Amino acid sequence: MKKLCLILLFPLTGIFNAQTHKIPQSTKDAFKGYWMYKAQYFTNSVVIDFEPGKDFATFKDIGTGEAPPRTLQALVKGNLLIIPAEQHQNDYIELEVIKGKLHLRVKQVTWDNQGNIMNSNSKLEEKTVFKRRTQRD
After folding, report:
1. Fewest beta carbons within 10 Å, which of 30, 45, 105, 113?
2. Closest to 31 (Cα-Cα) out of 43, 47, 15, 19
3. What's the whole-model pTM score?
């Protein structure tokens, strides 16, 4: 019986280890950094970072600096960073780097009284295009 348990245990450990995936260095290089969007009367800033050993990116929305920054976890999916919608927190967000600029797209999400996402036909909307900055201005 002990041998049977050990035989079953080894394949299961391989399955659980396969669940975590390493983020490619090219993805980290494309997204990591300080990004800024300048408008006529305000500046909006975000910081994207990757912690060693984690399978997600840290997205820190600094905004204009008037309110405390918000930190969200972004999942890597192909060449995108995805921030899933959370009730009372944020809508569905996709981030993509195109020609050296960070494109942020948002899909508005509607929630029902039980906290479930209602079926919505809203499409992704390009909201903001950020430029990478090497230092904070």
Report:
1. 113
2. 47
3. 0.75
